[in-house]
Amino acid sequence: MKKLDHIAIAVPDLAVAVAQYRTALGVTISAPQELPEHGVRIVFVKLQNATIELMEPFGDSSPIASFLERNPAGGIHHFCLGDPEFETTLTQVKDSGARALGEPKIGAHGNPVMFLHPKDFQGTLIELEKVSE
Question: Does the structure show a pLDDT above 80 at 133?
Answer without folding.
Answer: no
